[in-house]
């Protein structure tokens, strides 16, 4: 009984904080807003910790909170499923959220929307907790859309910026494309199992493994496996939320939001909801090799090709954003290889080091007075020592340096893919291997450009950097323009880019900013070492994750190769993966410290490839022309052609004209002249007589 | 309580109040007229509350029945009663009446008494429609309720109100005549009864059912409105004053849908099954086609009017899947649409009162000058886009889930509203609310006042309560919906 109250307290505490900060945002002073929300999240974190201890002691929970709706034979409930998977997510979410809350005090201190911001991030924490704690698909969808809403509000937090309000609408709509698949998947689950409760669905799923559904009335060729269709549709939802190709396009643009939420929502937690969801649905996905194959292929494409884009970015946040896309691809690949626990493990380590990298980037941005262009930085390690060290730790963790957190999770993914026999795993193995080199290269390209080398700041924006800026802004504004056709705001995208004045030096940020960096750096180093043995090879997850070991023996094989965390790290030096990462770092050092002239030369030589990357493989242009433009064209056509021309023009006004015409005709007969009427009468009598006589 | 004629009170209290308000006469007594109207509307709502609290969840039968002869010569009775299908609409209608009376408080300055009286009388007549169990009584209320609506559009409406009213009239005329003929046919067939309940039990041949179904379909399709007889709605909305739009969207659009449940399905069940493909197809066209049309609208009221048509497409789709989840989802969608569309039209009215334009292009950056309003408008826009935790989600969710079982591709088409609905709503929101202040009109507006805050809060509570806890709304429907589904599944052909 006591524990159930605690389960409720954990999500409700941040909600309460959000309501205080949000509903009264105009009347309360700033300290009330941040105290209330930080208190709420702290309670949630401590509560999660106690629940974690309780779950580790073997007490899981699955039960309703209240009945939401009943209809026919269906029951929809709001309820909690508290198990090892849930509690892992709860700890990650509340911890990162707490760090971000503290960090925000420093980052947003000059912003007029201070209270509103705290309200949003606490509301996000509530929504995310409801999502991960759900015991049914309905509430999952609730949380799913609620985090999407908060993401929308936060990307457009600076609502006067045209790029921000374009980006947030884009994020919402692209996510809705995913949700479109997601809700159809949920519909199939309900239609065939009669319930949305996880436990009941999972219990029934094996008996549906061989069920097929016919997409077109009883045609043999149109039958598909029910489980494949369901899982792929559910995964489409995950592709939206976790930004997998081709629904990834919203994530880079989401960087328009303030940096703390880039760390919390668009790196550590919300974007991993898709990964969590697939892991949660492992009893379903295990029944369909087709779906797993689809998952691993999409993941591999995302992991590799989004990594390439990271190489050419010059905005510090966008480099980290593409690295997030790529790492989400890694997690997805792990899911496809049936290594769900490895995916969750990487989700966890990634949450720490990626939040760290984002918050570090934010710290750099503060130090640089809101200049985000890494070409204007350099040598910052002298001025921002804490940011420097923690960012180095984050980068080392990201590229998979032995003993760091990212090493254990990423290496496990690569090994798992190597052992997988799902169709597509061959390509995925290549992609994740190549991805290691790419990740190392772009991560340290950024690291060297920001913290080492020549000090390029304070030079009143050299022409080169400024140009590209203008170009980027112009591009964004053009997207915006294309989307609504009548706004002209290309000029004010610049207002937030202050940058350092000539002679001005960057400065280290206040403790509220650096403390979260340090607090996140610690798990970024040690969590992998501690976690790998219980989470991957022990019985940490127990029944929370289901693997059909006969069909997909990846985890078992992985366990054979595992001889302890220390041995794994030491052994790494002899593996290809390590040397790929090492050469990535070495090459970036050579390019950006030793011979800074080379990148420009390569860029000049490989113009077509560079253009392709610069335009992000033309996904945005394609969507803009085909989907956004097509929809508007279709709408115009249906409106002007259908409603206005045919229905109103011909039918409605046509019948009005017909009535008018008849009236005119009738009016001719109602002339008011007696002789007209008399004449008509006579004719009528004559006709009747003729008919009568004729019949007789 | 059982002896109190609650339904008569629900009908006649607002009408009586309307005539009292009318008696205050000229605009010199406008404050008095407003106070009396508000009092009448509040009493009107209070008398409907016992309908919910005293409602018996277990029986599908009509409750709170009143029966007395009206025109004995033709066996026409004053026969009232509500079941789980109609009861919520009586309460919703009475609630919305309070909203419109407050909404016109400062905005309507000429012919105040007449304005408020028109709404009160219309409220009573609309309640009469939902309570009537006698076909002729239904018909009288059905037609009579149009008169106040015509007057509201015609007197307090926009510049092009004559065209809009004429168009509306032209559309309704054909439907009403067919509806009347269908009723007379049933009167003859049933051996001289105008009781809707008798008609529901009446055995009918397939061809008779088909003809009746088509007559009902035409009559109700215009009211819903369904594609392709929908084009009167955007014009009517554009010309109507804010209060008129709110009632039109929140209540008047529900009449056609209600007619399907009271007449088409139970009286012609075999024809309903036979022709369900037609209604499903028209519903999907309404959802998809109208969604794209809404996307390109430049007038905010037209945009929301089109979005109403798309949302009502979900209602008719839900009815004709013949499943409990679909039908209850449709009823939930109807109630929710009352809150959400009512709120959307009110929000547009709030902006119109200040800037005197409904064109999206005349706005931009409203959030800078009206932050409180922007927050409310965000909530209702999200509800319009079907976001979970708002009422707009519940019905769509139920209908899409029900549709997957009915036919996957129907669900596929219906679910497209997840994308298109969000697109037109958020794109409008972005252009109107976000961004920098674009012109001096927007720069000069003041944020919502206490009266507007009150209305928006009431509607917001409705939207959120229904989104977070829809059970109290659906549990009253169960018995009636299950009985209707059972009834429809039994053939009437003898």
List the helices and strands and how they pair.
The complex is a heterodimer of chains A (696) and B (494).
Chain A: H1 2-23, H2 30-56, E1 61-71, E2 74-82, H3 84-107, H4 114-133, H5 137-155, H6 162-193, H7 198-204, E3 212-214, E4 223-225, H8 226-241, H9 250-253, H10 259-268, H11 273-280, H12 282-285, H13 289-311, H14 316-336, H15 340-367, H16 385-399, H17 405-419, H18 425-451, H19 463-484, H20 511-537, H21 554-561, H22 565-572, H23 576-594, H24 597-605, H25 607-614, H26 619-669, H27 674-695
Antiparallel strand pairs in A: 1-2, 3-4
Helix pairs in contact in A: 1-2, 1-4, 2-3, 2-4, 3-4, 3-10, 3-15, 3-20, 4-5, 5-6, 6-8, 8-11, 8-13, 10-15, 11-15, 13-14, 13-18, 14-15, 14-17, 14-18, 15-16, 15-17, 15-20, 16-18, 16-20, 17-18, 17-20, 17-21, 18-23
Chain B: H1 6-23, H2 30-46, H3 49-53, E1 63-71, E2 76-82, H4 87-103, H5 112-131, H6 135-144, H7 146-156, H8 161-189, H9 196-201, H10 206-223, H11 232-239, H12 242-267, H13 269-274, H14 276-295, H15 300-319, H16 324-355, H17 366-369, H18 371-384, H19 391-406, H20 408-415, H21 417-432, H22 440-444, H23 450-468, H24 471-475, H25 478-489
Antiparallel strand pairs in B: 1-2
Helix pairs in contact in B: 1-2, 1-5, 2-4, 2-5, 4-5, 4-12, 4-16, 5-6, 5-7, 5-12, 7-8, 8-10, 8-11, 10-12, 11-15, 12-15, 12-16, 14-15, 14-21, 15-16, 15-19, 15-21, 16-18, 16-19, 16-23, 18-21, 18-23, 19-20, 19-23
Would you write up a description of this structure?
The complex is a heterodimer of chains A (about 700) and B (about 500). In chain A, helix 14 packs antiparallel against helix 18 (about 425-450) and helix 16 runs parallel beside helix 20. Helices cover about 70% and strands about 5% of the residues of chain A. The radius of gyration of chain A is 31 Å and the shape is globular. Chain A has helices at about 1-25, 30-55, 85-105, 115-135, 135-155, 160-195, 200-205, 225-240, 250-255, 260-270, 275-280, 280-285, 290-310, 315-335, 340-365, 385-400, 405-420, 425-450, 465-485, 510-535, 555-560, 565-570, 575-595, 595-605, 605-615, 620-670, 675-695; strands spanning about 60-70, 75-80, 210-215, 225. In chain A, the strands form two sheets. Chain A has a two-stranded antiparallel ribbon with strand order 1-2. A two-stranded antiparallel sheet of chain A has the order 3-4. With about 500 residues, chain B is mainly alpha-helical. Chain B is built from 25 helices and two strands. A two-stranded antiparallel ribbon of chain B has the order 1-2. The longest helix of chain B has about 30 residues, at about 325-355. The model of chain B has no long low-confidence stretch (mean pLDDT about 90). At the A-B interface, strand 1, helix 5, helix 6 and helix 26 of A face helix 8, helix 14, helix 16, helix 19 and helix 20 of B.
């Amino acid at each position: 009984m006591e524990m159930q109250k605690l389960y409720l307290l954990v999500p409700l505490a941040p909600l309460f904080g959000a309501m205080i900060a949000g509903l009264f945002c105009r009347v309360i002073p700033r300290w009330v807003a941040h105290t209330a929300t930080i208190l709420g999240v702290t309670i949630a974190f401590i509560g999660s910790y106690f629940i974690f201890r309780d779950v580790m002691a073997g007490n899981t929970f699955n039960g309703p909170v209240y009945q939401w709706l009943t209809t026919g034979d269906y029951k929809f409930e709001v309820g909690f499923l508290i198990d090892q998977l849930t509690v892992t997510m709860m700890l990650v979410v509340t911890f990162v959220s707490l760090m971000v809350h503290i960090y925000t005090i420093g980052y947003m201190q000059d912003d007029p929307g201070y209270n509103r911001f705290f309200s949003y991030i606490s509301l996000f924490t509530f929504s995310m907790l409801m999502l991960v704690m759900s015991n049914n698909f309905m509430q999952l969808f609730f949380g799913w859309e609620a985090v999407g809403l908060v993401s929308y509000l936060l990307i457009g937090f600076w609502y006067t910026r045209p790029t921000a309000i374009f980006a947030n609408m884009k994020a919402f709509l692209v996510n809705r494309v995913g949700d479109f698949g997601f809700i159809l998947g949920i519909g199939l689950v309900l239609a065939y199992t009669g319930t949305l409760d996880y436990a009941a669905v999972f219990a029934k799923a094996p008996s549906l493994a061989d069920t097929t559904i016919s997409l077109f009335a009883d045609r043999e060729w149109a039958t598909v496996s029910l489980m494949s269709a369901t899982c792929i549709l559910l995964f489409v939802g995950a592709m939206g939320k976790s930004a997998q190709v081709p629904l990834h396009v919203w994530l880079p643009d989401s960087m328009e939001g303030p940096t703390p939420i880039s760390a919390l929502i668009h790196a550590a937690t919300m974007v991993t909801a898709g990964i969590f969801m697939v892991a949660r649905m492992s009893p379903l996905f295990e029944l369909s090799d087709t779906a797993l194959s689809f998952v691993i292929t999409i993941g591999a494409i995302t992991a590799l090709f989004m990594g390439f884009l990271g190489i050419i970015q010059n905005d510090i946040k966008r480099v980290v954003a593409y690295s997030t896309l790529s790492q989400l691809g890694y997690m997805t690949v792990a899911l496809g290889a049936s290594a769900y626990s490895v995916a969750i493990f990487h989700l966890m380590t990634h949450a720490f080091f990626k939040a760290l990298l984002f918050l570090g980037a934010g710290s750099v941005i503060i130090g640089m007075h809101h200049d985000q262009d890494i070409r204007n930085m350099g040598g910052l390690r002298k001025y921002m020592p804490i940011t420097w060290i923690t960012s180095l730790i984050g980068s080392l963790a990201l590229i998979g340096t032995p003993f760091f957190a990212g090493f254990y999770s990423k290496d496990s993914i690569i090994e798992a893919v190597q052992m997988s026999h799902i169709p597509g795993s061959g390509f995925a193995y290549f992609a994740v291997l190549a991805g290691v080199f790419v990740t190392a290269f772009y991560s340290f390209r950024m690291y060297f450009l920001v913290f080492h080398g020549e000090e390029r700041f304070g030079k009143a924006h050299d022409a080169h950097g400024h140009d590209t800026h203008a170009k980027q802004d112009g591009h964004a504004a053009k997207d915006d323009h294309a989307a609504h056709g009548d706004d002209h705001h290309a000029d004010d995208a610049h207002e937030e880019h202050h940058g350092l004045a000539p002679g001005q030096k960057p400065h280290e940020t206040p403790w509220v900013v650096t403390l979260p960096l340090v607090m996140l750096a610690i798990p970024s180093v040690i969590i992998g070492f501690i976690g790998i043995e219980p989470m991957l090879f022990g019985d940490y997850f127990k029944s929370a994750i289901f693997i059909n070991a006969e069909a997909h023996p990846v985890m078992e094989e992985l366990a054979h190769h595992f001889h302890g965390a220390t041995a794994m790290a030491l052994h790494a030096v002899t593996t290809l993966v390590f040397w790929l990462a090492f050469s990535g770092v070495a090459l970036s050092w050579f390019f950006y410290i030793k011979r800074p002239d080379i990148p420009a030369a390569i860029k000049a030589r490989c113009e077509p490839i560079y253009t392709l990357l610069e335009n992000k493989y033309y996904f945005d242009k394609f969507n803009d022309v085909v989907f956004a433009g097509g929809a508007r064209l279709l709408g115009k056509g249906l409106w002007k052609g259908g409603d206005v021309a045919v229905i109103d023009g011909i039918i409605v006004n046509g019948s009005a004209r017909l009535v008018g015409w008849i009236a005119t005709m009738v009016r001719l007969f109602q002339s008011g002249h007696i002789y007209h009427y008399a004449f008509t009468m006579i004719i009528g009598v004559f006709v009747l007589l003729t008919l009568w006589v004729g019949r007789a | 309580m059982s002896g109190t004629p609650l339904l008569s009170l629900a009908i006649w209290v607002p009408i009586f109040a309307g005539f009292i308000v009318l008696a205050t006469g000229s605009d010199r007594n406008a404050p008095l007229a407003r106070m009396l109207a508000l009092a009448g509307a509040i009493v009107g709502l209070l008398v409907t509350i016992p309908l919910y609290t005293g409602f018996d969840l277990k029986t599908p039968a009509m409750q709170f029945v009143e029966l007395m002869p009206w025109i004995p010569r033709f066996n026409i009775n004053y026969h009232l009663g509500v079941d789980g299908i109609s009861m919520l609409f009586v309460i919703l209608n009475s609630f919305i009446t309070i909203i419109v009376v407050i909404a016109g408080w400062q905005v309507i300055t000429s012919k105040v008494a007449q304005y408020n009286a028109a709404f009160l009388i219309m409220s009573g007549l609309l309640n009469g429609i939902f309570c009537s169990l006698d076909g002729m009584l239904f018909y009288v209320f059905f037609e009579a309720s149009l008169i106040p609506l015509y007057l509201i559009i015609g007197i307090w409406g926009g510049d092009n109100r004559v065209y809009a009213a004429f168009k509306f009239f032209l559309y309704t005329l054909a439907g009403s005549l067919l509806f009347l003929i269908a009723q007379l046919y049933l009167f003859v067939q049933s051996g001289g009864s105008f009781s809707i309940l008798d008609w529901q039990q009446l055995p009918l041949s397939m061809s008779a059912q088909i003809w009746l179904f088509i007559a009902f379909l035409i009559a109700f399709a215009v009211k819903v409105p369904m594609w392709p007889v929908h084009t009167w709605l955007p014009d009517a909305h554009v010309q109507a004053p804010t209060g008129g739009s709110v009632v039109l969207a929140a209540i008047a659009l529900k009449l056609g849908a209600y007619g399907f449940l009271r007449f088409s399905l139970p009286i012609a069940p075999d024809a309903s099954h036979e022709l369900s493909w037609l209604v499903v197809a028209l519903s999907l066209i309404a959802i998809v086609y109208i969604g794209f049309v809404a996307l390109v609208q430049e007038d905010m009221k037209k945009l929301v009017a089109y979005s109403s048509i798309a949302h009502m497409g979900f209602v008719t789709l839900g009815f004709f899947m013949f499943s409990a989840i679909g039908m209850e989802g449709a009823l939930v969608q109807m109630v929710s649409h009352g809150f959400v569309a009512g709120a959307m039209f009110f929000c547009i009215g709030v902006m119109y009162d200040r800037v005197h334009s409904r064109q999206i292009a005349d706005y931009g950056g409203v959030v800078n000058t009206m932050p409180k309003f922007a927050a409310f408008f965000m909530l209702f826009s999200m509800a319009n886009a079907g976001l979970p935790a708002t009422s707009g989600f519940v019905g769509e969710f139920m209908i899409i889930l029900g549709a997957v079982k009915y036919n996957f591709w129907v669900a596929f088409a219906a679910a497209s509203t997840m994308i298109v609905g969000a697109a037109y709503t958020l794109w409008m929101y972005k252009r109107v609310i976000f961004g920098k202040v674009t012109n001096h009109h927007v720069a000069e507006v003041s944020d919502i006042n206490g009266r507007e805050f009150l209305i928006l809060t009431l509607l917001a509570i409705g939207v959120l309560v229904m989104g977070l806890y829809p059970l109290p709304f659906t549990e009253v429907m169960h018995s009636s919906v299950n009985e209707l589904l059972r009834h429809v599944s039994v053939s009437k052909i003898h």
